[in-house]
Records
---
Amino acid sequence: MNISNILVVGGGIMGRGIAYAAAVKGFDVTLTDISSDVIEGARSEIASFVEQGVNRGKIDPDEGKEVQSRVTYTTDLQKGAESADFVIEAVPEKLEIKKQVMETLDRVVDKNVILATNTSTMSPTEIGSFTKRPENVIAMHFFNPVPKMKLVEIIRGLETSDETAEITEAVARMMGKETVVVNEFPGFVTSRISCLVGNEAFNMLMEGVGTPEEIDKAIELGLNYPMGPFKLGDIVGLDTRLRNLEYLHETLGERFRPSPLLRKYVKAGRLGKKTGKGVYDYTSTEQVSETLTK
Ligand SMILES: NC(=O)c1ccc[n+]([C@@H]2O[C@H](COP(=O)([O-])OP(=O)(O)OC[C@H]3O[C@@H](n4cnc5c(N)ncnc54)[C@H](O)[C@@H]3O)[C@@H](O)[C@H]2O)c1
């Protein structure tokens, strides 16, 4: 196995983190998105990840320049596809988008190349069925923020070959990550638990059990979670959280019914850190909640 060129499709929160984590470990990366604004945002965020690494003494300045030069940015998917020997898809959690992207990748990327999907909840078996190479399709679930989070949860679809699972695990390790390989079921291990806790927190907020600060503090200090559910939800993106819950509600039933209050936040455009406001307000220096409770 000789993997040196990774194509990352989707330059949003996850795609840019994955691109950076791969480039830091020496991979050449092409990052592609349909939006040139997103591509420019990714370029400047990756530059700021490098700068933070240099400031913390984790990367020396010359190495920092090399990391940046290893990432190519483009809105032309075809460009990165020709040289790719491993692909990680990080487009939105919507089946029709995943389908369209996987069908395109299947056409333009060499047929032996693995197509890994960074889905949070969806079936790698179904995503694999959109291609003519289901044995080379697998879910590679990274966590946010990618540069900091240690785990990659790897999920085999029905047709995923042993070789694909082994290579994907090796790539994740080469990116400096720990891995678990689990069997497919909606939400896998981590999203299923995280969605349940995050949704219940919104129900508690709606019921007036406590403020976001109080609920987060109770979960952090009482249950020893490193981060409360609202802080985490704001990082994940409340729209992404809602889409994941809708999928789990559809596949696993009532206990995943999205909280009406979560829907209200999404309708208001309060999607979390990425829009400046979610449950908490990130537009002022102090992080305070301005709570919608009903
Ligand atoms: N946000 C998280 O915390 C998190 C964690 C783990 C996994 N995920 C999963 O990662 C995936 C991406 O999530 P995200 O939070 O980065 O979303 P995001 O909305 O921040 O980014 C998705 C990007 O994909 C781009 N895109 C849309 N259609 C495209 C296409 N046809 N070709 C290329 N790019 C296209 C969009 O322009 C956008 O920039 C989802 O499947 C999500 O469930 C998210």
---
Amino acid sequence: MRVVILFGTEMGTAEDTAEHVADALAAHDVSIYDMSDFAVEDLDVRAFHVIVCSTYGDGDLPTGAEPFFEELEDAMPDLTGLRFAVFGLGDSVYGDTFNRGGEIASEKLIARGAIQVGAHGRHDAQTDVRARDMAREWAAALPIPALAPA
Ligand SMILES: Cc1cc2nc3c(=O)[nH]c(=O)nc-3n(C[C@H](O)[C@H](O)[C@H](O)COP(=O)(O)O)c2cc1C
């Protein structure tokens, strides 16, 4: 199955995490993009999308994810049938806004008709578990159909 990994980051942790998700999904046809370099028109409803996104400000999307989601709001594409999973990054020290970035990403895609599948990952920077390790385990459990045999 074609898997498109999109990461939204401020300081690079989500990028590193996304690279480890790509490793864990290497049995698929995986490509990986910074959301700041990815156009909404390149979303493909036939591909499985994985969003890896941190949280900044007061429960906001990271700077790297903002242009993509602004374009999504403007273009209002019909994403009916697009399946995606979300691994969010945050820090529970921020209380109520914990992991809002990944949640906002999910809400905006669902609003366009996309379907979220698998567990919603929420890494907490307060824990000793590294985001990349948690994400690898999370990715291995995603319900992505296997590549069709050649
Ligand atoms: C200025 C600042 C604001 C943040 N705000 C939040 C927040 O509101 N909620 C949250 O869960 N995490 C928040 N975080 C934590 C980051 O999301 C977390 O450290 C994440 O791992 C960073 O990933 P990145 O390096 O990919 O941007 C904040 C971090 C910083 C430095």
---
Amino acid sequence: MNLFYTLTNFIIGTCLASHAAVICERINTTDFIFSRSRCNYCHFELALLDEIPLLSFLYLKGHCRYCQQKIPVELFLFELIGGFAFEHIDFNQSRDLATTILLFSIFLVAISDYRQKEFDLILLTPAITITLLCHHFTAFNLFDWFILFFFSSILGWYVFKQKLGLGDLFIYLILAIYFDPTSANQILLIASVLLIITYIVENNPKDYSYPFIPFILLGLIIKQWLLD
Ligand SMILES: [Zn+2]
């Protein structure tokens, strides 16, 4: 039963991530949620078998079935990360359903930030709404309030100095208010460590600016796996 639960959640996660990638791609089109996917190159409408998360990519060896153009490997990675991201969700619990919406919204922002190094604030609206509806303010103690104020001020200063995007501050506040400030700090710490490792491994120029929200998403997933 446990294996079934794990596998089902993994599959749901890959589907949600796959859909998030499609939404980010077509955010400015008229029907970006329900219209069928097309190949980015030949614009051929994809069949259901071409859209199975992870498996279609592997079966088609990362190429479009119709024009043989390469499908970006990042799509496979998004789906794989999605599989792990929703692994701890109990879809019978209302709080976890709210977490799903929040995670999906952060997924949208992370994909958009990864691709364009910016994102449309509308992608974060579901997460902001869920945070306002399911906030933990009443459970905050004095220490929580201090942490929230202290770290928000530090991040706010970096935003003011244009060393950090406003979106990063928004995501921090969302995590701190929906979960708690200590969890948000742990997520930020993991994200920063991952960013430093990426910087060392990739050896990009010093002034190269990395999108931070994908690292925050990874930090959130790793925290769920290791610390919860
Ligand atoms: Zn094609």
---
Amino acid sequence: MRTQAKLSAAVVGLATVGALVLSSGGASGHGYTDLPVSRQKLCQNGTVTNCGSIQWEPQSVEGPKGFPAAGPADGQICNGGHSEFAQLSSPTAPSGGAWPTTKVTGGQGYTFRWQFTAMHATTDFKYYVTKPGWNQNHALARSDLNTTPFLTVPYNGQRPPSTLSHSGTLPTGLSGHHVILAVWTIADTGNAFYACSDVTF
Ligand SMILES: [Cu+2]
């Protein structure tokens, strides 16, 4: 009897652990930008090939929050620190050649857009852009970026709708190829979602 009681306690314990694992798994993925189109979306829609597993889950670029003080390491910012998504930090498209870019104009109003598959309680959204003269020949690092966001949208712990647009103004003084880094910071976990979009000013 005692053994049986211990066993069933152990089974309950395992079930609890299982439920916790499932619930954190459920919170583990879930948004990307499609305006301007992000690298993970270009992989998912087949515009860029040889991307690896990110093509099946563009919403899963989830890494530690706190960028730029914390967050993914330099060289892994665009892949959220996930080695299985390393293709996203490649300075060139995994299929060869340059990442396709969206044409934008400095000083112009722009509507940035996120798509969510899980609507997490949200601290804020921040948008960063690379500096003039950034190093385009390596995986994106903090030294390439203006680490002051050009757009911050506080969200006060609310949950976003499945599609969310933000109106902002593109920074001035940039020309040629740049990367916009969008960061979605979750309020009730230690994580954030990262999306890099290539643009031409
Ligand atoms: Cu999630």
